[in-house]
UniProtKB/TrEMBL annotation:
<feature type="compositionally biased region" description="Basic and acidic residues">
    <location>
        <begin position="1"/>
        <end position="12"/>
    </location>
</feature>
<dbReference type="GO" id="GO:0015031">
    <property type="term" value="P:protein transport"/>
</dbReference>
<feature type="coiled-coil region">
    <location>
        <begin position="70"/>
        <end position="154"/>
    </location>
</feature>
<keyword id="KW-0813">Transport</keyword>
<dbReference type="Pfam" id="PF25555">
    <property type="entry name" value="RAB3A-like_C"/>
</dbReference>
<feature type="domain" description="GDP/GTP exchange factor Sec2 N-terminal">
    <location>
        <begin position="59"/>
        <end position="153"/>
    </location>
</feature>
<keyword id="KW-0344">Guanine-nucleotide releasing factor</keyword>
<protein>
    <submittedName>
        <fullName>RAB3A interacting protein like 1</fullName>
    </submittedName>
</protein>
<dbReference type="InterPro" id="IPR040351">
    <property type="entry name" value="RAB3IL/RAB3IP/Sec2"/>
</dbReference>
<dbReference type="Pfam" id="PF06428">
    <property type="entry name" value="Sec2p"/>
</dbReference>
<keyword id="KW-0597">Phosphoprotein</keyword>
<dbReference type="GO" id="GO:0042802">
    <property type="term" value="F:identical protein binding"/>
</dbReference>
<keyword id="KW-0175">Coiled coil</keyword>
<dbReference type="GO" id="GO:0005085">
    <property type="term" value="F:guanyl-nucleotide exchange factor activity"/>
</dbReference>
<keyword id="KW-0653">Protein transport</keyword>
<feature type="compositionally biased region" description="Polar residues">
    <location>
        <begin position="46"/>
        <end position="61"/>
    </location>
</feature>
<dbReference type="GO" id="GO:0070319">
    <property type="term" value="C:Golgi to plasma membrane transport vesicle"/>
</dbReference>
Length: 375
């Protein structure tokens, strides 16, 4: 553009020198020359205006091109800014998704660890409960084996053909009983005793019990039998605790009585016979534990052939035959209702009810002081 303007300016400067030049002394034959110079001057003016028009057109076109280019660049810039905003929003959304996934992953990991710890705790609890049940089952098996051995001994030593008169004194006739118990050394004395006994012996009437079911007690037992439990809150056990178990296990030493009752309820009480050599010699035992000649529960001077241990404490308490009978009666009752609770008793409801009543009678008799002679 500048080069074209420069050439035009140079041409415009040279043409006036040619167009306005006039000779001083025109010749005769050259009259038309001044007219030719004027025509050249007119032509130069027209070309100059044309050039100026072209320059103005070029300038306007360049301005339009610049405006259009700036508008295009603005549009492109606007589009780029929009794309950047969209990408920023997408990045922000993806970052939120990532944070959410990380949080969910942390929560899932924490819940998995918690569940794993919970399973381990439950497994340890079940293992401890199983070991405890196994220990109790082994103790029950040992107890049942001891009972079976004792029953076998009774069966072996007493048969229908040759009964054991000491184990079954009711099988003896009065005359034989007097004769066996006598220690006569001559025949006349023994025959006299035999004759006197035969004359004085009178047949004893056979006693038969009459039983009648108490409707209130039977209804309470039936209600308990539907869902057997060892909870004292039910009416069936509440009555037995008040009327039988409580009085039966109520001894003079109140603190020790509470411990004995808790051990009987939890089935953790152990009764064992005292060695024969320990009966004759009293070694320095504690006052509250009693001794072979003093009962720990009643505090009275009695010959104690048995002793008890509460749980795994290792402390032994000497008890008299009367106290042993009371504790044994309560233990028999709790053992039977535990068997019912565990579903080991397969009998009619009425038969189970009468067995419970028999065990209650044993507790009442033991409380009143009645107990078998072999104790």
């Amino acid at each position: 553009m500048r080069r074209g303007q420069t050439h035009l300016e140079e041409g415009s400067q040279k043409q006036p020198a040619v167009g306005y030049w006039k000779p001083l002394m025109p010749s005769k034959g050259s009259k038309e020359e001044p007219e030719t110079g004027c025509q050249d001057a007119g032509t130069g003016g027209e070309s100059q205006s044309a050039e100026q028009c072209n320059v103005s057109r070029l300038r306007s076109s360049s301005v339009e091109i610049r405006e259009k280019g700036s508008e295009f660049l603005k549009e492109e810039l606007h589009k780029a800014q929009k794309e950047l905003k969209l990408k920023d929003k997408e990045c922000e959304r993806l970052s939120k998704v990532r944070e959410q996934l990380e949080q969910e992953l942390e929560e899932l990991t924490a819940s998995l660890f918690e569940e794993a710890h919970k399973m381990v705790r439950e497994a340890n609890t079940k293992q401890a409960a199983s070991e405890k049940q196994l220990k109790e089952a082994r103790g029950k098996i040992d107890m049942l084996q001891a009972e079976v051995t004792a029953l076998k001994t009774l069966v072996i030593t007493s048969t229908p053909s040759s009964p054991n008169w000491e184990l079954h004194p009711q099988l003896q006739s009065p005359s034989k009983a007097v004769f066996r118990k006598g220690h006569a050394r001559n025949k006349s004395t023994s025959s006299a005793i035999f004759t006197a006994a035969s004359h004085n012996a009178t047949p004893e009437p056979v006693s038969r019990e009459c039983k009648e079911v108490d409707s209130v007690l039977f209804a309470e037992f039936q209600s308990w039998k539907e869902s057997p439990t060892l909870d004292k809150s039910c009416s069936f056990l509440d009555r037995i605790y008040r009327e039988d178990v409580g009085p039966c296990l109520d001894f003079s030493k109140q603190e020790l009585s509470e411990l004995v009752r808790a051990a009987v309820e939890q089935n953790t009480l152990t009764i064992e016979p005292v060695a024969s050599q320990a009966l004759s010699v009293v070694k320095g035992s504690a006052e509250d534990c009693g001794g072979p000649k003093k009962c720990a529960l009643s505090g009275l001077p009695r010959t104690c052939k048995h002793r008890i241990m509460l749980g795994d404490s290792g402390n032994y308490y000497y008890i008299s035959p009367s106290c042993r009978a009371r504790i044994t009666a309560a233990c028999n009752f709790f053992t039977y209702i535990r068997y019912i609770q565990q579903g080991l008793v397969r009998q009619d409801v009425e038969l189970m009810f009468w067995e419970v009543m028999r065990l209650r009678r044993e507790m009442s008799l033991a409380k009143l002081g009645f107990y078998p002679n072999e104790i």
